[in-house]
Amino acid sequence: MRDFAHEIEQRKQAGLYRTRRLISGPQQPALMAGGTPLLSFCSNDYLGLANHPDNIAALISALPKTGLGGAASHLVCGHHDAHHQLEQRLAAFTQRSSALFFSTGYMANMGVISALAGRGDTIFSDRLNHASIIDGCILSRARVQRYAHGDVGALESMLAETSGHKLVVTDGVFSMDGDVAPLKALARVCRAHDALLVVDDAHGIGVCGPQGRGSVLEAGLSEDEVPLLIGTLGKAVGTSGAFVAGPAVLMDYLVQKARTYIYTTAMPPALAAATCASLDLIEAGESRREHLRELIARFRAGAEQLGYELMPSQSPIQPIMIGGNQEALALSQALEQQGVLVTAIRPPTVPAGEARLRVTLSAAHTCEQLGQLLRALAQSRALLSGRASPPVAAV
Ligand SMILES: *Cc1c(COP(=O)(O)O)cnc(C)c1O
C-alpha cells in the first residue's frame, strides 16, 4: 500500500503540513482559539455579519415556520418558498433576471463550469483562479487553457486561435491577492470572440460596488456583458451557500444540467431567510464599507512604513508577501505569540515561492485593533530581514 504516513512526514519537512485550529464561540475579531483569546485578521467575514443579531434573529424566527432540514434535493421536493424568495432577492441585488441558490461556492463553480462546457469545448481560466474553478474545469472534460493573471492581451490571442464553444472564467476579486480582474476588458474580448464569460465574485459581493453589489456592478457590467455572475454567501454575507445569477434561460439550463445543484440536498430553508436579512444589511451598510475602506488605507500605510511587501490591492484582502514557507510560518507564529492571528498561506493555495500572510480586514475591526496588528508586525519585522525593527512609535 502507498505510504501515506511518509507523505505526511514529507509535507512537514517542506513546511507544507496543514492543521485545523479549534475555535469556540462566534466568528468575530476577538476569537477564542483553543481556549486562548486571539485577535483574528484572517476570516472572510468582511462586514462583520457572521454574528450580526439581525441575521441571527431572522434565522430563529424562520425556523418554526420552515423547520430545520432541507430534506430533499430541489428537483424532488426540497425547493422551498424561502429558497425561491432568496433567489428573487439575489437577482434583484445583482441586477440580473434570475438567480439560482447553490449549497456552496465550491459546488456552484463545479456545477456551472461543468454544465456549460464539455468535451470538445475550450475553457480559458486565469492562472490565479480559485481551486473550485480549477476543479470545475477538470470536471467538465473540456480543453483548459490558462492565461497569465489578468492578461487580457494573452487571452485575446488564445481566443482568436480557438474555434468552437468558448468559456472564459475568472475570479472578480482574487482570493489570495486581493486585486480585481480587468472585468470591462474581459467582457469586451469575450463579446468580440463569442465566448461566454463567468465571473466568480466570492470576495467582491457585499464589499465593493454600489451598495455592495460586487465588482461586476462596480465595473458597470450588465447581464449581456457578464452572463454568469457567481457569488458566495459565506464570506461578506456572513451566512452560507452561494448563487449564480444571469439570464433565465441559463438558470433553466443549469437546473437541467448542473450536477452539484441536482444531486444534493437543499440547504435548510431558514438559512435562506437569514441570508435575505443579511442582504438588507448589506444594501444599507455604506457606513460599514466606509469604515472598512478606512481600515484598509491605514493598514497599507502602516505596513508599508514598516517595510513589509504588500500587493496592489484595495480590497480587504491584504497579503504580506514573504516567499518561503518556513518564513511565513515563523512570522505567523511570532504574531500569534503577541495575540494576533494571521494564517500563513502556502502552496498549492498560492504559487511556490509566494508564501504569504493573508491579512483580511473586516468592518468589525476597530481602529485600535488594527493598531494592535501593526504593533505586532513592528515587533516581528526583524524576523524577516535580520535588521532591527523600526521603532514601534512609528505606527
Ligand atoms: C471561497 C471561495 C469559493 C468557495 O465558496 P464556498 O461557499 O466557501 O464553498 C469559490 N470561489 C472563490 C473565489 C472563493 O474565494
TrEMBL record:
The keyword NAD is assigned to this record: no
In-chain residues carrying the UniProt-annotated modification N6-(pyridoxal phosphate)lysine: 235
The enzyme's E.C. designation: 2.3.1.47
Pfam families listed in its UniProt record: Aminotran_1_2
Residues given in the record as pyridoxal 5'-phosphate binding sites: 105-106, 175, 203, 232
Gene Ontology terms: biological process: biotin biosynthetic process
Catalysed reactions listed for this entry: 6-carboxyhexanoyl-[ACP] + L-alanine + H(+) = (8S)-8-amino-7-oxononanoate + holo-[ACP] + CO2
Residues that, per the record, bind substrate: 18, 130, 349
PANTHER family hit by this protein: 8-AMINO-7-OXONONANOATE SYNTHASE, CLASS II AMINOTRANSFERASE/8-AMINO-7-OXONONANOATE SYNTHASE
Assembly notes: Homodimer.
This protein's name: 8-amino-7-oxononanoate synthase
Organism of provenance: Marinobacter excellens HL-55
Source organism phylogeny: Bacteria, Pseudomonadati, Pseudomonadota, Gammaproteobacteria, Pseudomonadales
Gene: bioF
